[in-house]
Each structure stands twice: as C-alpha cells, then as structure tokens.
C-alpha cells in the first residue's frame, strides 16, 4: 500500500508544532532519531525532515506529497502547489524597518531606496502593486545589520518582538503581510494518496475545532431558560436536562473560545450558576 509523504521542517520554529499536530491526530511518530525520514507505525504516512525553504519545491515535484511550512515560504517560492489549510501556529509578520532616527511618513519614503531582504519576491510584488520603485538586495540571513553596514537603507524581514530591530538601531514602519503555518499538497496526488490525505485533513479539522471550542455546563433557573438558550449556539442546540432541584435545569453545550468570556458574563446576568468549562479533546462536526 502506498504511503503519503509529508515534509516538515527538520529543526526550527515549525518543527515541534508540526510533530505535535500529527500526534494530536493520533499519528504515532518514532522518537526522534537523527534520521531524515521516518514512518508512522499506525498511519500510512512517511515523514521527511527538510529545510522549510525547500518544501515548496519538493511538494511541487512530488518528492513529498504534502508539507507543513510558513505561508511566507509558500508565497516567496511561488511553486505550483495546493494550499489546503492554515494551521494556526507559527504566526509572524513581515515588516519594513528603517534606521530609527529617520523620519517616516508613508510608503513613498521607500521610492528609489535600497531594501535588504530574504523575501525578494514578496517585497517586489508589494511595491509593484503600490507603484513604487525600489532596489532589492537579496541576502540569506542577518538582514537586520544591512543598514548599519551600508548595504541597504531599509530592511524587509520577519518581525516578532522587535527587539532584534532595536538592537540594530532600526524601527518597524510597515507590516506588509502576516503569515502562519499552512498545509500544502501536490497538485496531482494519486487516488490512494488523496484518500490518505482526506483522512488526515478530517483529523486536523477535529483537532482544530476542539482547540477553538469549549464544552460548558451550567445550571439555569427555568424561568430564564429561553434567554440563556438564545445565547448558546451549540452544535445543534444545547442539551437541557432537569435538575433534581425544582425550577432548575442543567444546560450542556459547546461555545467558541473567542466569544467565551462575553457569553459567560451574559449567562451570569441571567442567573446561571455552577458554570463548568471543559477542554474538548476532539470534535467531529
Ligand atoms: P530552515 O533551516 O528550515 O530553513 P529557518 O531558519 O528558515 O529554518 P525558522 O527561523 O525556524 O526558519 O522559521 C521557520 C518559519 O517560522 C518562518 O518561515 C516563519 O514562517 C515562522 N516564524 C514564526 N515566528 C517567527 C519568528 N519570530 N522569526 C522567524 N520565523 C518565524
Ligand atoms: Mg528557511
């Protein structure tokens, strides 16, 4: 039987979370050896450990069938692959930064300036769209020192805290794009591999849904049930069970993590008590 080959980053900011996602999907992965490839004993998948920069190319060529990497690398490499799903980790932004004593008004500042970056394609596309002419210096790393050594007037790079910028006498002036980890696939997967990928995607959805939702239980006075139920969307609708205590019911449902606190506050206003909030292990819609 054929196996689905997945490329993940060998070591770096994406590695741990990529492995964790596979494990959360119930896919066992042999404890780390120094091998560059390994197979799961309980799911038809083979894992290739690669540099993130190389993943788009390998997936395009079918050396790997699918891959997990930052969207920034997908955009920069512009290979012919399918973007399947954002994965919600390794969030970062790609920013323009200039020497901190420079006065900055707007993007026209960059007209005819030299900008150092490891992401020339993303940057060129951005300024082409804006109709601004810039000179791009492509460098592989340590982009932040480019202005102080006279290589460029500005930089375009991934910024997380901004402290690296500061120590190099730079300030962030524009966010060009935000990126996160994404799952990509080859365009022409054979049927058998596509079926494995579909199984994997199904599991990823369940894992992601569960992390975005909470299971809540609460006690509500019966005379406020309608108001409380209206606050709670639930998967179909909440479960309502009578309590032993006359005039009260127990309500069970699932709510979105991002609306969570707001809903809890409103529930309390309607007299809900004994609110329990539980993590969801997996959630199949
Ligand atoms: P490789 O050796 O695989 O080429 P790398 O040095 O290019 O590794 P990392 O620094 O490990 O890559 O970052 C991998 C990805 O993690 C980035 O492409 C980006 O999508 C994401 N990322 C998230 N936060 C940050 C950050 N603060 N700095 C750099 N990358 C980040
Ligand atoms: Mg890289």
UniProtKB/TrEMBL annotation:
Cofactor(s) listed in the protein's UniProt record: Mg(2+)
Residue ranges occupied by any ATP phosphoribosyltransferase catalytic domain in the UniProt entry: 51-205
Predominant location category: cytoplasm
Regulation: Feedback inhibited by histidine.
Cellular localization per UniProt: Cytoplasm
One annotated Gene Ontology cellular component of this protein: cytoplasm
Gene Ontology biological process terms in this record: L-histidine biosynthetic process
EC number: 2.4.2.17
Catalytic activity: 1-(5-phospho-beta-D-ribosyl)-ATP + diphosphate = 5-phospho-alpha-D-ribose 1-diphosphate + ATP
Family annotation (InterPro entries): ATP-PRT_HisG_long (IPR020621), ATP_PRibTrfase_cat (IPR013820), ATP_PRibTrfase_CS (IPR018198), ATP_PRibTrfase_HisG (IPR001348), HisG_C (IPR013115), N-reg_PII-like_a/b (IPR011322), N-reg_PII/ATP_PRibTrfase_C (IPR015867)
Domain Histidine biosynthesis HisG C-terminal: from-to ranges: 212-282
Pathway(s) annotated for this protein in UniProt: Amino-acid biosynthesis; L-histidine biosynthesis; L-histidine from 5-phospho-alpha-D-ribose 1-diphosphate: step 1/9
PROSITE patterns: ATP_P_PHORIBOSYLTR
GO molecular function, one term: ATP phosphoribosyltransferase activity
Family annotation (Pfam families): HisG, HisG_C
Keyword terms of this UniProt record: Amino-acid biosynthesis, ATP-binding, Cytoplasm, Glycosyltransferase, Histidine biosynthesis, Magnesium, Metal-binding, Nucleotide-binding, Transferase
Family to which the UniProt record says this protein belongs: Belongs to the ATP phosphoribosyltransferase family. Long subfamily.
Function: Catalyzes the condensation of ATP and 5-phosphoribose 1-diphosphate to form N'-(5'-phosphoribosyl)-ATP (PR-ATP). Has a crucial role in the pathway because the rate of histidine biosynthesis seems to be controlled primarily by regulation of HisG enzymatic activity.
HAMAP family hit by this protein: HisG_Long
NCBIfam families to which the protein is assigned, alphabetical: hisG, HisG_C-term
Protein name: ATP phosphoribosyltransferase
Protein encoded by which gene: hisG
